[in-house]
Write a structure and sequence with these properties.
- By secondary structure, the chain is of the alpha+beta class.
- Strands 2, 3, 5 and 6 form a four-stranded antiparallel sheet that branches.
- The longest helix is centred in the C-terminal third of the chain and has 40 residues.
- The protein is rod-shaped.
- About 0% of the residues have low confidence.
């Protein structure tokens, strides 16, 4: 199991750079001075001019929240993390298999312009960012626990925790993270219905609950985060947060599900109206009886109840009808 080793090197890159300039200046001056006097000294000056540049590949500049994984002839020797101007063994190689990978994430987003994408790739370096980044995964169409197709997208906030694991344990840690986000999202979404449904167990305790993608977004996001974290732990990645950014029925059933929701809302509203109307009719009959305003037999009570229910439950305003005769 490979773990990260921090290199605590002195930040002597500037001194080495100035030294190379001094060597070049002295060598050029030596050539002019020894050119006709000593062939040996002239050759030594030419040798320094031809070889001093070999020190330059060992100069490394790190900005805050950057890391550089170094290998020497295939062996991992450590990671530089502190910002500064360093000089390392010129034969050391920087390793970052994901340095050309472009994902839909902060600081590393996909560009629609091919020219801009090519320019970004050319200017990319093999330094590993230690900043907190957000991966905006593409929307996926997944069937919920009831078999209804749902479109869902997530944004995952992550950062590199162990550079050695990220570089050496997986082939490309960015692609690995994206694939594991897709897989974890599918596993969690298949447990929940889109909306509250009866006889559905989303917690795995054998008891039906009211969990749903729409109503339990915080719980769903937390389970998605934990699922992704368990999958990318060996890649040295820490998942800070996962949030649902898009949630909707798939287009092929969206219209039908909208009608279903509207029908359910209408039924709930009608139930409330009927309950209220019954209470009002009951209160009216009780007041008439207690105050002895009028004495009604059962037939007249039935007629009154019918008229009040029509007025209270109707969709339109009632039209008054004046009765100038008797009920019989």
């Amino acid at each position: 199991m490979m773990t990260e080793k921090n290199l605590n090197l002195k930040k002597n890159g500037l001194a080495v750079l100035l030294l190379t300039f001094v060597i070049y200046a002295a060598s050029i001056a030596g050539i002019f001075y020894w050119f006709e006097r000593s062939l040996l000294h002239t050759g030594i000056c030419i040798f320094f001019i031809c070889t001093t540049w070999l020190l330059w590949p060992g100069l490394k500049v790190l900005k805050p929240q950057e890391a550089l994984v170094l290998t020497l002839f295939g062996k991992y020797i450590g990671t530089l993390k502190e910002p500064g101007f360093y000089f390392v063994n010129p034969f050391c190689s920087s390793v970052n298999p994901a340095w050309r990978t472009r994902l839909r994430q902060s600081g590393d987003s996909v560009h629609k312009d091919p020219v801009q994408m090519a320019a970004d790739t050319a200017s990319a370096s093999k330094k590993i960012s230690l900043k907190i980044m957000t991966l905006d995964n593409n929307r996926q169409k997944i069937n919920d626990c009831l078999g209804n197709p749902v479109e869902i997208g997530i944004a995952v906030t992550w950062k590199i925790q162990d550079t050695a694991k990220a570089v050496f344990h997986v082939d490309n840690y960015k692609e690995f993270l994206s694939l594991q986000c897709d897989s974890a999202l599918r596993n969690i979404v298949r447990i929940y219905p889109y909306d509250i449904a009866p006889n559905v167990d989303t917690t795995g305790d054998g008891i039906a609950d009211e969990g749903s993608l729409r109503g339990s977004s915080e719980t769903v996001a937390l389970r998605i985060r934990d699922e992704i974290q368990s999958r990318v732990l060996e890649a040295g990645i820490e998942i800070i947060e996962a949030r649902i950014t898009h949630l909707a029925y798939a287009p092929e059933i969206a219209a039908v599900m909208l009608q279903r929701q509207q029908a359910s809302a209408i039924i709930d509203a009608r139930k409330m109206i009927v309950d209220g109307a019954v209470g009002m009719v009951e209160m009216a009959l009780e007041h008439l009886n207690n105050n002895q305003i009028v004495t009604l037999d059962e037939e007249r009570k039935a007629a009154m109840v019918s008229n009040l229910m029509v007025v209270l439950c109707g969709n339109h305003d009632a039209q008054p009808v004046v009765n100038t005769g008797t009920l019989y």
